[in-house]
Amino acid sequence: MAIKHYLQFKDLTRAEYEYLFERSRVIKDRFKRYETYHPLVDRTLAMIFEKSSTRTRLSFEAGMHQLGGAAIYLNTRDTQLGRGEPVEDAAEVISRMVDIVMIRTFEQEIVERFASRSRVPVINGLTNEYHPCQILADIFTFIEHRGCIQGKTVAWIGDSNNMCNTWLQAAEVLDFNVHVSTPPGYEVEPERAGLYGTDHFESFADPMEAVKGADLVTTDVWTSMGFEAENEERLKAFADWQVDGDMMRAAKAEALFMHCLPAHRGEEVAAEVIDGKQSVVWDEAENRLHTQKALMEYLLLGRIND
Ligand code: CP
Ligand code: NVA
């Protein structure tokens, strides 16, 4: 089988996502029934972190153990990557010792360079540009609560960051719409987002207009990892882009609220929203585990019929 990497959302087709969502459901159901499922015995996952993480580390590490394999945590501070070893050299070495690699880093180019020299599948665990594993979990969560996402409207409020770019790619692959509202100067850059066109998204200057008719309202931190030097100016620029109760009331009555976490209550989201009835943020976080187990199984074993 040819090596398959997961570096951005559009690396997989709609048919592959349909398979992964169904597989995530099966794997989650077995996990909830405490059924042992060990398809990845003797397989090892290397997890390389150049940025902080709670959910991504935990879900990949626990997920690999639950599938019968082992996971090794590496970070920039304790490895030669932090001392300037070329990423290509690291890829050659690491991919001779493990079966699958997950990387969280800065520029997308770094995961692409790693993948180009890797003998094993590479998964993007977040870059400045994309966060595909999170959107995989988010769409699975949407499906669990509301059914198929095709034709639905997602409102993205805030920064046109890695999460926003990935929602936009997902809209093209799975055929739904994204209403985006960002402050001036922080607009979507379609090329950086890796889009084929502009058919699946619409930009709105006013966030209250963007949420109208939305089936899902979602946001993320105003300052992503790696952009901390811009924090003060971003706090001012994004002040009118907080998702609050008024914004949720302007969306469809049954709209869900999502946030990949970690969240800042009182900044990008009001406490009444993230802690309110429409919020599914804990399901989103849990589903990182189940969807990534399905993803690792697929990248290593292909389609399973059981
Ligand atoms: N949502 C997410 O990726 O969380 P972590 O940064 O904690 O991994
Ligand atoms: N956009 C955020 C997501 C964190 C999970 C960041 O990159 O910091």
Q: Would you spell out the secondary-structure blueprint of this structure?
A:
Layout: H1 14-32, E1 44-49, H2 55-66, E2 70-75, H3 87-97, E3 100-104, H4 108-116, E4 122-124, H5 132-146, E5 153-157, H6 162-174, E6 177-181, E7 201-203, H7 207-210, E8 216-219, H8 231-237, H9 245-250, E9 256-259, H10 271-274, H11 281-301
Parallel strand pairs: 1-2, 1-3, 3-4, 5-6, 5-8, 6-7, 8-9
Helix pairs in contact: 1-11, 2-11, 3-4, 5-11
Keywords:
306 residues, alpha/beta, Rossmann fold, five-stranded parallel β-sheet, binds phosphoric acid mono(formamide)ester, binds norvaline
CATH-scheme architecture of the largest domain: 3-Layer(aba) Sandwich
What is the mean pLDDT? 97
**CATH domain fold name of the largest domain:** Rossmann fold
- Identify the CATH homologous superfamily of the largest domain: Aspartate/ornithine carbamoyltransferase
The oligomeric status of these chains comes to: single chain
User: Count of helices?
Assistant: 11
CATH class of the largest domain: Alpha Beta
Describe the protein in words.
- The longest helix has 21 residues, at 281-301.
- Helices cover 40% and strands 13% of the residues.
- It has 2 domains: 9-131 and 287-301, Rossmann fold (3-Layer(aba) Sandwich), CATH 3.40.50; 133-284, Aspartate/ornithine carbamoyltransferase (Rossmann fold, 3-Layer(aba) Sandwich).
- The chain is an alpha/beta fold.
- The model has no long low-confidence stretch (mean pLDDT 97).
- The structure holds phosphoric acid mono(formamide)ester and norvaline (NVA).
- Residues 126, 161-163, 220-221, 224-225, 260 line the site of norvaline.
- The site of norvaline has 9 residues, from helix 6.
